[in-house]
Amino acid sequence: xxxxxxxxxxxxxxxxxxxxxxxxxxxxxxxxxxxxxxxxxxxxxxxxxxxxxxxxxxxxxxxxxxxxxxxxxxxxxxxxxxxxxxxxxxxxxxxxxxxxxxxxxxxxxxxxxxxxxxxxxxxxxxxxxxxxxxxxxxxxxxxxxxxxxxxxxxxxxxxxxxxxxxxxxxxxxxxxxxxxxxxxxxxxxxxxxxxxxxxxxxxxxxxxxxxxxxxxxxxxxxxxxxxxxxxxxxxxxxxxxxxxxxxxxxxxxxxxxxxxxxxxxxxxxxxxxxxxxxxxxxxxxxxxxxxxxxxxxxxxxxxxxxxxx
Length: 309
Hints:
The protein has helices at 2-9, 17-34, 39-44, 48-66, 69-74, 76-103, 113-123, 129-138, 142-167, 176-210, 217-237, 242-257, 263-294, 302-308. The protein is mainly alpha-helical. Helix 7 packs antiparallel against helix 9 (142-167). It is globular, with a radius of gyration of 21 Å. The model has no long low-confidence stretch (mean pLDDT 85). It comes from Modicella reniformis.
């Protein structure tokens, strides 16, 4: 956080705080790796349940809650084109190139086309944090900013749904029928998840409007946060996308529920979601750096790393 403060005060844009976080995690991970004993190393090894249930939701919720809806919906066509078509093209290109690389037999790499596509879907969600920070300082055209910001929010959700959809076909023959079924599953999951998030957001907005809960700001703020998290866990529990539900629940809450809140709750929810998102984002990058050295079940393939880079 101190480094982030220094970078902002000095207006340094060549390096971002996320890079510092990864490097910090790597240094700590390396120290743990060479230290005797493995108790601490086992404690900080990457666990997907922590990541998906604790660290990721605040970032997605804050993205939806902070979004400038007017600009987002005005440029929705462009944003959806980049988010869906752009992310798919990116996943396809990376997947095909990785598959061709595995066919060469370098470093005894054995990846099926489906595994290569799954890998491509992971890398296809770009996070333009640094670009948006530079855009803010340069005061670029608001339309350009809103398109890139909107696309960056949606492509995470698109990439995760694509990853989960493709993963279901592991161990099966990958043919045209599977591709069509996979595409229809993808759009079904995305659409229903979106509807669940929007409906839960509307229920929360209606509850605020029809009750006097604004007289109890603490309870009101808790209700908003819990309704948002309810959409995430409910969608996950019925094997849909919690990420998509949470994102659109956040958008709906800001659009319909925000004006019904008390002034104190407005300030509390905005500040709370921002703080949790910033802490989560930094910790995720530290966690990734740590995992490089604390994860014991890893294959080191330098040529593969260089090629994908």
